[in-house]
Amino acid sequence: xxxxxxxxxxxxxxxxxxxxxxxxxxxxxxxxxxxxxxxxxxxxxxxxxxxxxxxxxxxxxxxxxxxxxxxxxxxxxxxxxxxxxxxxxxxxxxxxxxxxxxxxxxxxxxxxxxxxxxxxxxxxxxxxxxxxxxxxxxxxxxxxxxxxxxxxxxxxxxxxxxxxxxxxxxxxxxxxxxxxxxxxxxxxxxxxxxxxxxxxxxxxxxxxxxxxxxxxxxxxxxxxxxxxxxxxxxxxxxxxxxxxxxxxxxxxxxxxxxxxxxxxxxxxxxxxxxxxxxxxxxxxxxxxxxxxxxxxxxxxxxxxxxxxxxxxxxxxxxxxxxxxxxxxxxxxxxxxxxxxxxxxxxxxxxxxxxxxxxxxxxxxxxxxxxxxxxxxxxxxxxxxxxxxxxxxxxxxxxxxxxxxxxxxxxxxxxxxxxxxxxxxxxxxxxxxxxxxxxxxxxxxxxxxxxxxxxxxxxxxxxxxxxxxxxxxxxxxxxxxxxxxxxxxxxxxxxxxxxxxxxxxxxxxxxxxxxxxxxxxxxxxxxxxxxxxxxxxxxxxxxxxxxxxxxxxxxxxxxxxxxxxxxxxxxxxxxxxxxxxxxxxxxxxxxxxxxxxx
RNA sequence: GGCCCCGUGGUGUAGCGGACUAACAUGCCACCCUGUCACGGUGGAGAUCAGGGGUUCAAAUCCCCUCGGGGUCGCCA
Length: 597
Description:
CATH 2.40.50.140; BirA Bifunctional Protein, domain 2; 3 domains; 5-stranded mixed beta barrel
């Protein structure tokens, strides 16, 4: 080793030690007669001192030092002179008197600050990711990631799980996201696909008798990115045999609880994790991944407005839609402009025609409500009794703003849910430091795809239907509930899983409902069904999105800040410059020809 | 593919029709400085205001297009 100690670890107890340190010049303070350098390595920063009287040669060399130079120094750890201690630094009681120095490597001036936490254009950060990662925040994030993943491994190892790797080159699956494809050199015209998740593989491991499996699994989905989504991401993938929903959920709950309490003790979290039925989540929060850190819950107002003369309302109800609202506390004095903003927000999510009702501040009791205390874009269509009933249901009082949307159920839920989230943010309703985990349960197994005119799996086709709903499979698929559970955290879906189908004939039946012919089923999923026919145990599992979990735990706003080398929004890697063209020979070997446009 | 937002010295920002010969902070370079720790002081270099076109007597500023980036809808079994 080129060093005997880490910079950041030196303490009072090291006083008197001769040490060799190596690291980066974090900051330099040249006093003319005396040069101080903050020397940084992975463990932190220590002050080293160049004194011309004591060591003239290194002092002269130190004149050349600039930020991010890599140096090695020999010296003695000494107590700092009284009054010059720096309590802000863990190493602030001591310093190292340099007796000899070697410059291991020079550095160009970095394109952005490494020793300061300043917002920098993300392009630039990604182009120079190796420098970005030197910054304190990124070091913290990547280290936290290690600790979290390490904890997960230990936790599961101690519970008898086996970590098993599964292939990255597998087969394209018809349902789900777009696959990343890898052309085969040996088989012209054939392709591998990168796994969207090791779903089928882990089920096969259950058939293979491993009973408890986990993996830190890279997953790939070729879809557009978001703040919490990029082409490749990491899941803690878990599968267990001979289990029911509660076994998996309680294990997950224990894992997450102990993780947070052990590594992020400043957070408050509610135990046990609440369980919310899907239908309820949609009705109350307009989302299957509700942020339950705050209220602003939606209520159905259809019955109150059933005979409303307002065309938007009556039309929606006539078309089988609904009318729902939320109440925004203290927003009754919103300007026209602010209200327009909300209207646009609703439109962005597909919800047209936001109706707002401002209740005057001076209104003491909803019972005393008169139309003079009501300001609304739809005022002339609203009866005072209707407003009163709506206000009551929504828990609104004087000074509040009521938002109402009408339309088909899913659009209203989505748009009003988006408004709820945005207003929750703006009004800062979520208490800081709160982690609101919740399980969402009782999902329907299928949903009807209007465009394609067929049933689709709500999650994936391997989810088991509930036993008591089996008879509905053929008659009324929409009523079949799946044995699926999602886990959400502060409005993010951080995981999901289910008890799987473990019998070949049931699996085949589900594929039939999804519109597959036997031939296709055999081609695409024959391996799985065949495996089920050789004594597959009942099994189930879950997958946790490690990036999203970390993002929330670390208070970051994008998944990219917890990934060492992320892709940008356009799925490009700005450091490597990928994706990139390849040589013609490579294409030829792969039997590929580019379309010339 | 749609919508919204952003692009000004290395970095972060200000300026939003004329007083801009583009300001501030920091970084960078030189010199001074022996107890600083975001050291301090003096001086200096550094910007075709993302690119192109237009409107105007006059454009960093207004309009259009392109490029790059971010957010979001669609998409994400």
